[in-house]
Amino acid sequence: MASATITSKGQITIPQEIRDYLNLDTGSKVDFVIDENGAVKLIPLQVSIQTLSGFLHRPGMKSATLEEMEVAIQESSSDWT
């Protein structure tokens, strides 16, 4: 298990094995989330599209085609004008 020490300024260095696992590099942004069990999770904010694939899927949900997405974007854009 990786561990880190908190400095007097409340800062930590994320261990290399964790940075490698999350594909974090200099300048990467992360978020801290407290889950329903009280565990704190470190979430990388700059993730590849491949990592997000299926993220919003719900059982029984129909996948949208690219054309359907473009129509939806245009329809919502017209609401702003």
TrEMBL record:
GO terms for MF: DNA binding
Keywords: DNA-binding
One Pfam short name: MazE_antitoxin
Domain called SpoVT-AbrB: residue spans: 1-47
Protein name per UniProt: AbrB family transcriptional regulator
